[in-house]
User: Fold these one by one.
Assistant:
Number 1:
Amino acid sequence: MTPDPALPPAVVAAPPAGRPHFASLGWRLTVLLGSCLILASAVAAWLSARHLGNRLLDQSRSSVLRIADVVKRSTRYTMLHNRSEDTNQTVQNIGQQPGMEHVRIFSKDGRIAYSSKPDEVGRKVDLSAEACYQCHAVAQPLTHLDSPQRARIFRGDSDARVMAAIDVVYNEPGCSAAGCHRPPAEQKVLGVVDVGVSLKEIDQRIAVAGTGNLLFALAGTVFACGLLGLLVFTFVTRPVRSLLAGIRRVSAGHLDQSLPVTSADEVGQLAVAFNQMTVDLRAARNELNAWARTLEQQVEEKTKDLQVAQAQVIRAEKLSSLGILAAGVAHELNSPLTGILTFATLLLQDTPKDSRQREDLQLIVNETNRCAAIIRQLLEFSRDSGPQKRSHDLAQVLERTVALVERQAKFHNVKIAVTVAPDLPSVSCDGSEMEQVFLNLLINAAEAMPEGGSIAVRAVTAPGPRVLVEFADTGVGIPPENLGRIFDPFFTTKPVGKGTGLGLSVSHGIVRRHGGTIAVQSTVGKGTTFTIELPAAVAQEALR
Ligand code: ADP
Ligand code: MG
């Protein structure tokens, strides 16, 4: 079926063949969700690396604070007894431990008294230096710092980060009593222990962890994207494509296919709704086709009726012009024939009974009578005046006619069966004319069955109301090429002297004058049916 040109062009355009479907729903979903996944996992990897870094820094802060405390406690005794060599040794020992950046002890005035880096000893540092800044940021230096404030991170000499912590050495009663310095009792702070630990290793671990996290996240995301693509293809792209293919098939007119329903989700429901729509469309199309067929049939029937009516009109026209001709001829022949018959009869009366002439004269009288009968029929055929109509029961007319012919020789081997509908309405007609019509049809039927046969006469009511009288015989039938000519005057297939070819044309004229029609149906070798249709008397009354 080709698409209806009245419909709008197809809404669903197929993607160009051979190109990747970058505009497809599955592709866009995968790319969009994949991008979100990559972003989310990158942020998660970064946050996790940061969290790990913070934990490691917390750990190193507490261990630096602990080391500063250890230095302070380890040097307390030697400093109390002013054993600077031992103090120096302790500072060196701790400062050379792996990962240690420096160990220093500052005096109150900012001079480095001990250091794991010997070249620093004796150097006085600026009080705004990063080690001193926490306490000396304000005019009156702080004497106490909380643990977190005591630790700091800065870039060391080797550009690696260093976590350092200070611990304040307070004046104790033992200090002012012992040693050579004897600090005044009101001096609260004697100095500061400063310990630095390299963060190089921790920074490396943080970097490795960050890269590892990122790589793992990326690998996981790629895997998730693949899985996502597969799921999107299975649950979205494939069913949607199959829906699309179905829609294209339906728009091409193939309504007999349905889509497979593979899931109960929205796509499945869409397939169910689509299948239902296809079924509805199919039913609508079948209904339309049925209507079209019925319409075609009706048009065919009406065309046939029109053709029959047209043929009848043509025949009527032809017969009426032939009727005028026949009337003229009959009229002209009538007077000479009457003269011939009169004189022949007179001559016959004057001729002796056993003379040879008498036989010839008798032949002339007989043949002239035959000619007169034909001329009477011709005049009957061309008669213009209307019939003498009276209401007649056609059953009785039929009965009379059948009784008339039954005893004739040509009806000896013919069975006549008359069926009349019990409620047959009466017909307004000229009884003797109708008798003549029925007689013609019965004689024709009998002559078509020289070996015998049957004639079924049937009278029924038809809508209108009209009366149908059918004469169906089992005779030789009429060849199709003769069917259009049998109502013509003088058309006969019978030998000369047997048929005049006027029976049917006269009958046609009579029926027509009664406002009816006469039709024929025939199959060669099977039989012929003549159907006369006349208006019922009630219908004519109603028309008046
Ligand atoms: P006729 O009977 O004198 O020949 P009709 O007008 O009565 O003239 O009939 C014309 C022709 O129609 C007949 O010669 C015959 O060929 C044909 N015909 C009429 N009725 C029948 C019939 N019942 N069966 C076969 N042919 C018929
Ligand atoms: Mg006849």
Number 2:
Amino acid sequence: MTAADEIKIKKIKESKLSQISLENIPFGKYFTDHMFEMDYHNGEWQQPIIRPYEPIMMDPSTAALHYGQAIFEGIKAYKNKDGEAFIFRPHDNIKRFNASAVRMQMPTVPEDIFMEGLRTLINLEQNWIPNQEDHSLYIRPFMYSSDEMIGVRPSEDYKFLIILSPTGPYYNTPMRIYVEEQYVRAVPGGVGYAKAAGNYGAAMYATAQAKLKGYDQVLWTDAFEHKYIQECGTMNVFFIIGDKAITPDLGAGTILAGITRDSVMVTLAQLGLTVEERELSIDEIISAHQSGLLKEVFGTGTAATISLIKELKYKDYIMSFDVNSWKIAPEVKNRLNQIRYGQIEDPYGWMVKV
Ligand code: COI
């Protein structure tokens, strides 16, 4: 299978789009008319197909349901002011997808086929890309083990799919975050850096506990001392302390290498801040707060974009912020949006034309 081999296309008879309004659309609830599908069988990828979006038949013994060989990505497509469709940094997502695949003992997807699949599918679904600010076409590529057997071993067969969802913001309002010091998300040597489905399932209990206490998400800390900050449930995290922007480093393999995280680091540096990727302890954050140096706290992610954090709670210590007075996070968001919607030049080559 090479990208030169044509992707088979089976079109729907009538689009669902006329029944859906793309204005103020919630995150991840509606899906476009078609999906991309490709199976891995006999040690190689088979003929890819774009076909109508519909449920997938699964044998109850399907391996992914039992042992969790399942990975995914989150990417976004936008329309520029001339109505042309662009994808934000898809090559970086493809590389991260394949790094997740390697860690989960799954086959990698050749980058050219992945990219051609994205392009062809989005091209077909261009009308589904919302025009509204903070809205986009969310792209969800994913892969799962599809062997029908319940022995514990890596599957021989896999299914790779790409589905699309026109979407609005994931978080609508500034967030309250609970610094977690009982449960853990990731350990060195584990799968924290992979976008493995199980990482999200494993986080749900602790997140639900934090929600019972009135918080939106947890901020994970390291597994050994619960001292060093890792990431929030669905986003990486940044702290503006004095004139520095600090975000936890990726060194221990316990943090997702966010593509928005990387884009934000570039943008912060452009705004003149010193950007540091390093170990950051909760004690350092608290002392910065006490001395008035902790200016802004925000999360970054494909779905979350830039999400302001208005409260952080660690044990009995609560840090509250007046997010309306912030300048940096809104400016970063504004600059990234201008690039995404084609309102300013994209000096980094982040926007890839469909
Ligand atoms: C994303 O930001 O794309 C994510 O995958 C986070 C979440 C929606 C699971």
